[in-house]
Amino acid sequence: MKFVRYDVRGKVKYGIWDDEVVHGIRGTPFYHFRKQSDEITFDGTTDEASTIRLLSPCLPSKVVCLGLNYRSHAEEAKMPIPSLPLIFLKPSTAVIGPDEEIVLPRDSKRVDYEAELGVVISRKAKAVLQDRAKDYILGYTCVNDVSERYAQAEDGQWTRAKGYDTFAPLGPNITTGIDPDDLKIETYLNGEMRQSARTSDLIFGIAELVSFISNVMTLLPGDVIATGTPSGIGRMNPGDIVEVRIEGIGTLRNHVVAAP
After folding, report:
1. Distance of alpha carbon 38 from its chain centroid, rounded?
2. Residue 89 phi/psi, 5° resolution?
3. Model confidence pLDDT, tens digit, residues 196-206
4. Going by C-beta distance under 8 Å and a sequence separation of 6 or more, which residues neighbour residue 19?
5. Who wins on pLDDT, 37 or 68?
6. d(C-alpha 124, C-alpha 223), whole Å
7. pTM
8. Domains identified in the chain and CATH numbers
9. Burial group, residue 34, by CB count within 10 angstroms (0-12, 13-18, 19+)
10. Can you spell out the DSSP letters for 110-176?
11. Which residues, 6+ apart, have CB-to-CB distance to 25 below 8 Å?
């Protein structure tokens, strides 16, 4: 099942994507997963893909990101494998959806793409045990962890480098019912493949991350865990089109522009 959040004729709603049409649902998919007895109900509307505008598939209160969570990326960065997950936050104001513009800040010197698998939280999660982690996951989405490298190096911590407006593209949907442990993940820049790996290369797996993070901070419905990027990160420039493609989920496409 693929949940989407979309704008149709000026109304924002959730629906289920099915072969180029969207079937509207009542409410949001998050309420359903808070009460297991409730079922998703359709609102009777069906819209062609050409008549809607896809939005970010959720509105997270925070995006919790992982640093150095692929063995290949740790090797690329010439850094040791971490003994614990290295987490940082992107603010909700960084979130954009499919086909929205990544805006390069006026003071930026090098802004990179980072393809990542996103874990979307279904209900309030606090101190979750690893063997219960799946009970708190709605599904999975594509994330581009956009990063300004000079700010990252200058500051010694990553809030500014990772937290600019538009630096957290999400989408195009939230996919349920897939196994996240061995998915192909790729980045294409202007049609040329730049990153290619499988999620089986993750150092810390999905269940371990949900448990670890929820023991640090409470995760809320719609929050996203961005699980880290593989090797092959690279620079984006104005005019570029960057695509994050994840097996079983789809393609998150964004245009890159300079700040006005």
Report:
1. 26
2. -120, 145
3. 999 999 999 99
4. none
5. 68
6. 9
7. 0.96
8. 2-54 (2.30.30), 62-258 (3.90.850.10)
9. exposed
10. -EEE-EEEEEEE-S-BSS--GGGGGGGEEEEEEEE--EEHHHHHHHSSSHHHHHSTT-EEEEEEEE-
11. 13, 14, 15, 16, 40, 41, 42, 43
